[in-house]
Amino acid sequence: MRRLLPPLLVLLAAAPLHAQQASAPLQDFDLSGGIVAMSDYRFRGVSRSDEDPALQGNLTLSHTSGLYTGVTATTLRTGGGPDFGDGEFDLYAGWRGALGRGFDLDAGLTYYAFAGAAGHADLAEPYASIGYLIGPAQFAAGARYAPSQRGTGDEDRLYLFGQASVDLPGRPIAFTAEAGRQDWGRFGSYWNWSLGARYRIAIARRTAAEIGLRYVDTDLPSTRGQDAGLLLSAALRF
């Protein structure tokens, strides 16, 4: 798996050129994505890289109808928690569209696949959220619900979350905040939250670099992998 992830991320890096070449005959489609290097990969506040650096790549194909599909690949490292293997692949598809009066809806399904995980970790998780845009601020609230299946330990898993982001007018800086609560049957429940900032540097018409810093915390016991931390990231997005 470790041999497969680097070529995949190289392919993601070459995608902007491919997207420009294919844009003429595919005017109803848009290909976007990016590569992110991060000091720690946190999933809902809990580290999946043992608080070590991780690399993540993403590709999303969107249609003017609002339909989209894509994949996110992330390197993992097992620490003292569950063994998710060497790589996580999030395959997703959904629909995003305007509802009017500044509101929009985003709904779909994510399938989480883990390479080299101990036991059966793969699972499917439908999601839906409603967003609201007012000036430079955007707010969203939603839910992700994974029904009982082998990958959830035969327990329902519900994640409720709220997000907010504000872009400074005329500035390449954005501030973000997020809070969520996960309920997972006999595996317990917990809160997580984060505050962050992003600085965007335009490189070309469709390509930009981005530097981010986030403070992440949970109300779980303060042990390695779920304690408070500052996360630094550097990304190339198109």
Describe the structure.
By secondary structure, this protein is mainly beta. It has a single domain (5-237), classed as monomeric porin ompg (Porin). Helix content is 8%, strand content 58%. The protein is built from one helix and 14 strands, in the order H-E-E-E-E-E-E-E-E-E-E-E-E-E-E. The protein has one helix at 5-22, and strands at 29-38, 42-43, 46-47, 54-63, 67-75, 87-100, 103-115, 123-134, 137-146, 157-167, 173-183, 189-202, 208-218, 229-237. The strands form two sheets. It has a twelve-stranded antiparallel beta barrel with strand order 1-4-5-6-7-8-9-10-11-12-13-14. A hairpin with a 5-residue loop joins strand 10 (157-167) and strand 11 (173-183). The radius of gyration is 18 Å and the shape is globular.
**What is the string of helix and strand elements?**
HEEEEEEEEEEEEEE
Give me the CATH superfamily: monomeric porin ompg
Strand line-up of the largest beta sheet: 1-4-5-6-7-8-9-10-11-12-13-14
Largest sheet: 12 strands, antiparallel, barrel
What spatial form do the alpha-carbon principal axes imply? globular
* Total separate domains: 1
Radius of gyration over all CA atoms, rounded: 18 Å
Topology, number of strands: 14
Keywords: Signal
Pfam family, one: Gcw_chp
Signal peptide: 1-19
Protein name: Porin
